[in-house]
Amino acid sequence: MIGPSDSAISVLNKLKRGRISATELMIQTLDWIDGINPTVNALVAMRDADELLAEAQVADQGSKTRSLHGLPIAIKDLVNVAGIRSTQGSKLFANHVPTEDDAMVARLRAAGAIVVGKTNTPEFGLGSHTFNEVYGVTKNPYDHSVTCGGSSGGAAVALATGMLMIADGSDMMGSLRNPAGWNNVYGLRPSWGLIPSQPDGDTFLHQLATLGPMARNPDDLSLLLDVMAAPDQYQPHGSTQYFHPTGIDETLENIRLAWLEDWGGQLPMEDGIIAICQQAMQTFESLGARIDRPPPPFNAEAMFQSWIALRSWQVGVKLEPYIRSKNQIKATAIWEFENGQSLSAFNVHAASCVRSDWFRTATELLDEYDAFVLPTAQVWPFETTIEYPTQIGETKMDTYHRWMQVMVPASLAGLPALAVPAGFSVAGLPMGLQLVGRRGADRHLIAIASRYHASTNWPERQPPTIEE
């Protein structure tokens, strides 16, 4: 019997040794989904059970050597999957059924994964709160009254509740890291260009968003990264190189971490977040890591203004074909378009110069440290009835995503950032840390996280959704 805490690697070993069949795994998975998903609404556009069982039976008759042989997976609903309704969380695409898989989905299928459906996401992936007018809101499994985050919220909840063992996601401004932190799982925003994007439209200019893996442990994260990061000859900026700075054995004694907390007071934080993250940093220190607290390496406001310009420029261009349907898309999407439309080429260039300055500064910082460390959010999970926080303490938020400013340092520079669970509030809500490393240091971050996971195993603390 496969349980909600089983790892993908352990289940794959059982499949390859014949201790469980893909058909049996699919039956158990669908039964578990039927029992859990109606409560949290993480999985959407589920395929017909008979079709899935037939596909699993075919897998049982074929080779068992593929890396994801027979493993059920659901795809974030920003990605096209042939034959499955793919909506981007928008009423404009409520009935859209693609005839072809996006490249990433094709890679997962080729590795043997069986796509069971989609994971819920906010409309067009905008905002770190997973709700839309097509499928509704996805609930945090640790407290159904609060958000699960986003935009990979459905994926994070499916992992936290054991409905999936691995999941794909994407990250522009923390969409892999924020929901990982708020659901007590792991999420990796990889080095920009490591995972190929869909090879159509512009592939040169817009270097912000990336696909990435999520899992309940770092080893499963690495497993999925291997499949997602297959090279693509049509990507001009793609990379298959990993950076290996130092070896890691049973301890972290050669590891140096820069704990940047609230960026020297420049990032407002709700009460209790820094304290929880500080405890997680003490765990790293107990494992041998050296923890320093250097001053903020760059002006946070300069980074944010650069980010806002580059983000709205990219998002606005993507939304332009749909903007005439203003009454059918949410206000934050319209705001991104209008803000992007107001920019000149000179504005974009100036923003990119700030980005370049920050990248150079970050590279110098990471010449000294294996990673710098920040919380995965500036607020605790908020009520699902709230679209986004408008204030942190006495500080008012001037945009719908200002409360996620802590995500900008990694996103702006295209650096790998790995979200790890940090623990729980008094109210039982999860929080995470993000380890941000040098470009190409993805494997090194996973290795650091593996030692931390072996000591903490936070995902073993399952949500009440399961315990009930």
What order do the helices and strands come in, and which of them pair?
Elements: H1 8-16, H2 22-40, E1 43-44, H3 49-61, E2 72-76, H4 103-110, E3 114-119, E4 131-132, E5 136-137, E6 139-140, E7 143-147, H5 153-160, E8 166-171, H6 177-183, E9 186-189, E10 210-215, H7 218-228, E11 256-259, H8 273-286, E12 290-292, H9 300-319, H10 331-341, H11 345-368, E13 371-375, E14 391-392, E15 395-396, H12 408-413, E16 417-424, E17 430-436, H13 442-456, H14 464-467
Parallel strand pairs: 2-3, 11-12, 11-13
Antiparallel strand pairs: 1-3, 4-5, 6-7, 8-10, 9-10, 9-16, 13-17, 14-15, 16-17
Topology, number of strands: 17
The rounded Rg comes to: 21 Å
Task: Bin the strand percentage.
Answer: 15-25%
What is the mean predicted local confidence, pLDDT? 95
Strands of the largest sheet, in order across it?
8-10-9-16-17-13-11-12
Structural class: alpha+beta
Task: Report how far the terminal alpha carbons are from each other.
Answer: 19 Å
**Helix content percent band:** 25-40%
Flag low-confidence runs.
none
Counted by DSSP, the helix tally is 14
Largest sheet: 8 strands, mixed
Tertiary shape: globular
